[in-house]
Amino acid sequence: MEEKTLKVRVDCCPECGSENLIRDYESREYVCGDCGLVIKEMEYDRGPEWRAFDLEQKEKRSRGGEPLTYTLHDKGLTTSISPFDRDTYRKPLKPEQKETFYRLRKWQKRMRLLDSSERSLAFALAQVNQISNNLLLPKYVVEYASQILTKLVKERLLRGRDIKSAAAAGVYLACRDLEIPRTLDEVAEAANEEKRRVGSTYRFIVQEGFKELDYKPPVPSHSMYVSKTGVSGLTEGITHKILRAAKEVKLTLGRSPIGTVTAAAYIASVLTGERLTQRDLAEKMRCTEVTIRNRYKELVERLMFIVEL
DNA sequence: AAGACGAAAGTGGTTGA
DNA sequence: TCAACAACTTTCGTCTT
Q1: Crossing angle of helices A222-229/A278-285, nearest 10°?
Q2: Share of residues in chain A with pLDDT > 70 (%)
Q3: pTM score above 0.85
Q4: Which nucleotides of B are covered by protein (CB under 7 A)?
Q5: Cβ of A196 < 7 Å from strand B?
């Protein structure tokens, strides 16, 4: 069995032993809710489904320095060879040099023949880069999304499909899998694509592209979105507490997680005096003030007396 | 004046016949 | 496939700080 990278899941604070850890999904850090210690999450575990990639990568690496990045299809290795058997001084080449160049050209041609999938891969990766830039995604996410697209193109699963929406779907999948709080809406917008198309391509990728792996990306959790609200320190902790309580009384079912999180953050900010306005939160979280109000009314009615602060 | 509140009407997605 | 439905949005007038 191939040993996989271990994700060091932190479940309690090494300093004070508290289990009240707050996870920041953007920076992959935990903050202890009691003593404030910052704990960095270690290596990301891509799970057994990605092992093929790792093996391949390893193999190639040991052979000849394959670029370690998937974000460029050829890492700028393309070269053009002059069709004339002359050197830079336009003098004819020596016979053995001629032979060398003949071989080089032959290989160059062979490479070109492979180009149709290379081309779409290059295009796909360029798209991934652009979309990720628009979304301000960390590098490891771009890398991961690039791996996904590379796999899809290499297995010819994207033939006849719109590469651009596939790139968007790949970025979205990477975000989902790495628990980066980005909505389908945001990704579609960053890709300048219709949400519907990205969504259906996403479903296709998950179903068809990873069929053999019985793979499902994690469902976005409430706490994922908390770091996005921009509330700080104490407020963040209270937001998490409110959300936990909300879940207990089933106030989260059927509601959009964004609305619930935003409302919880609003309440928390009022409680701590940070006092974020509904408008700012609504804008940042891409929901409306009305939704915040509806959620927060429910929350206050049902559980403010339950939450101990 | 800015923020919060809520009513009313409209929209897109889910569910069940 | 269609209708019913709840959540959510948009818009706008009113109240509060």
Answers
A1: 120
A2: 72
A3: no
A4: 2-8, 13
A5: yes
